[in-house]
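Bench notes, afternoon.
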Amino acid sequence: MKSLVKTIAYIGIGSAIVCAGTMIIQIPVPQTKGYINMGDALVLTIAMLFGAKVGALAGGIGSALADIILGYTHWAPFTFIIKGLEGLIAGTLAHRAQKMPLRVFFLVLAGLEMVVGYFITEVFIYGIGPAIAELPGNCFQAGSGVLISILLVLAIKRAVRDSKVWNI
């Protein structure tokens, strides 16, 4: 029971962090009626720190909630799945990887899933032209998310290394 409560709390706090982080920096993309943001960095960070379950749910819920709050409601269901899978991949693979090069590889894989997921969705909704137009922005979002998440995880782990409060 204690573990379940802790997991639910991590998912709730993680969702709020992802939502807020997604909303802070947004660059609108008119062709797809979407936006580029820095939420991926937080999805990947939470997934690396807390694993697949928390990463997937916090990533999906927090990102979809940001879409709804910002008025991009048509993207929310797709975002829930795409960002949830991104958190699941990072939380399953990068969370367990012991060596940094392997961890980076798995984070890039998670970011690639995000790029491909949105590309397929955009082709389906808007056609190939707008989907191609958004590729550079999504690649930038994924790449910067990987870099920022690595720096955040290193800083967080260093800060709480000797703490008895968190086991991350």
